[in-house]
């Protein structure tokens, strides 16, 4: 499946905000969006002089932002939306919960990968186990109580150790528990919207897909 492989800071500039696509490196390095706070391309600096964005444009940009944060293709993102649309509750919140429950996101949230892109690669390369079984599908939906851990033979990988060292300086979300010494963690409860650290207006995405 085609995946974006270009400079990730370009995506942040397009959305006008930090998407933290480099993980903790976005906190320690000066991001391109701070130096060039305008959209990429030859017409980027003239964006501010254009007419006011339409409602559709706002909805589209919000969808693109969230899709890029989680590193998904349009087909994958739409598939998740259609699935949560059949679930009870608030659709926008259910969408974010489903995205946060993805294995690659949990690997990132637990500090085993420096970014979601790095976490996805760890999963693909069979370095991650769920309940003792190797899972190499980044979109695997982790359920409450399932244990996610780095395979024993992979815990000494430099990238994993560096990510865990950086993770030790941060505070994980309240809905997951992590044991850095064992490179293992669990999703202890279903996250609420307030506990998901994503600055997004998910209702705009629902409105976009509901047209």
What would the keywords be for this entry?
alpha+beta; 10 helices; about 210 residues; about 40% helix; 5-stranded antiparallel beta sheet; 5 strands
Folded structure, characterized:
- The two termini are 27 Å apart.
- The protein has 10 helices and 5 strands.
- With 211 residues, it is of the alpha+beta class.
- The protein has a 5-stranded antiparallel sheet with strand order 2-1-3-5-4, covered by helices on one side.
Helix-strand sequence = HHHHHHHHEEEHEEH
Distance between the termini: 27 Å
**Count of individual helical segments:** 10
Low-confidence stretches: none
- Shape designation: globular
Kindly estimate the percentage of residues that lie in beta strands according to DSSP: 5-15%
Please, what is the average pLDDT? 85
State Rg: 18 Å
Strand order of the largest sheet: 2-1-3-5-4
Structural class: alpha+beta
Largest beta-sheet details: 5 strands, antiparallel
Approximate helicity band: 40-55%
For the secondary structure, the number of strands is: 5
